[in-house]
Amino acid sequence: MTHITIEYMIMIPILIMQIFLFPLTASWLMNIWVDSRRSLALKEVASHLGSTIQQLYFAMNHETISAGTATYSPGLPPFIENNHYIGNATLRTVLDPALNSSKVLELTLKLARTQITTTTSVILGPNVLWRESTFVSNSTHACVSAEKFPNGTICLYFGG
Amino acid sequence: MVSSTIDHMVATVVFLGAILLFIGLFNQTIQTAILYQRHRSLATKCSDLLDNMLLNPCNPLDWGKSNCTPTGFGLQDPEFMQYRLSPFSLMRLLSSSGNRVYYNRTGKWYSNVSWGIGGGYLLLQESECINYSTASKLFRSKRNLRIPTNNQPDFDSEC
Predict the structure, then answer these.
(1) Taking a C-beta distance cutoff of 8 angstroms, is the pair A51, A124 a contact?
(2) Quick check: B151 pLDDT over 50?
(3) Which of A52, A156, A160, B66 is buried most deeply by CB count within 10 Å?
């Protein structure tokens, strides 16, 4: 009788522990997977947005295009799993600025209400400027704009 | 008493087997999913790199036709749009497949970009070619491109 009681005393806490342990483990592993999936979706959006900016710049940089402003809506999804995302960018030169070198636009996207961020880079020409602006995915006017000046300089910024 | 002990032994073994089976199956499924996502992530990064290399004519635009050192990296033909590469820019890349050629009259090494068609040769002076180190410096994207020592490009999946 004592033997059986001791077995129950060991087995019942183990069984109760399993009731909590299984869901917690499953939840932990699923969180890893969900974060990875969101991160991947954000990377694809960043890639698309970077490519859009690059193509807009090169289109405006063509000699047949005169001074003016062009706006393009990249057609990105406004939400990634019910979370909108916010984008910022910084411009830096590849080599010494005195060499009139190409510039790299570092684009950073952050998924709202999470800690997921991603960065992508696009190479642009030396005649580009970046106007400080923020891309908000769920804005009705989310777009990328490029303004070409008469001297050939192209100023890029997010609209919306 | 003996029957009870056998019951407990069987139950314990089945219980432990179920735990191991659950962990194994779940782990395998998650690992497959994570691996797939890593590959997708790597593919996205490669797509970014290719966009930057192939859709960018670089600076100056005619660097493939001149002897100047470019201040940016890109292989697109500046006279066209889309995915059309400049043959001149491509020829200025240091060949990693052709054997280097030493010409003793000039005392210089030449990059061999010959196709071997019709017995003709096309040699470009190495000092005027763009090697991987220079390309990586010009294509500076610290997390994107890592240049290993064996002159083969290697893409880093981290971002």
Answers:
(1) no
(2) no
(3) A156
- pLDDT at site A134: 94
The pairing of strands B101-103 and A85-93 is: unpaired
Report the C-alpha gap between A21 and B104 in whole angstroms.
75
Q: What are phi and psi of B137, to 5 degrees?
A: -65, -40
Would you place residue B144 in the very low, low, confident or very high pLDDT band (cuts 50, 70, 90)?
very low
pLDDT of residue A60 exceeding 50, the answer is yes
Query: With contact defined as beta carbons under 8 Å apart, do B159 and A118 qualify?
Result: yes
Peptide bond into B60 cis (omega under 30): yes
Q: Identify the residue among A120, A124, A128, A154 best suited for mutation to test binding to B, counting B beta carbons within 10 A and taking the highest.
A: A120
Residues of A in contact with B71 (CB under 8 A): 94-95, 99-102, 126
Q: B108 exposed, middle or buried (CB, 10 Å; 0-12, 13-18, 19+)?
A: middle
Q: How many Cα atoms occupy the beta-carbon half-sphere of B63 within 13 Å?
A: 26
The rounded distance, in Å, linking the Cα atoms of A86 and A79 is 10
ipTM score of complex: 0.74
Predicted confidence (pLDDT) per residue in B126-138, tens digit? 888 888 888 888 7
Q: What is the pLDDT of residue B53?
A: 86
Bridge partners (DSSP) listed for residue A90: A106
Inter-chain residue contact A101 with B139, CB threshold 8 Å:
no
User: Which chain A residues are within 8 Å of B28, Cβ to Cβ?
Assistant: none
**Using a CB-CB distance cutoff of 8 angstroms, which residues of chain A are in contact with residue B30?**
29, 32-33
CB A51 within 8 A of CB A59: no
pLDDT digits 0-9 by tens, A99-131:
777 888 999 999 999 999 999 988 888 899 999
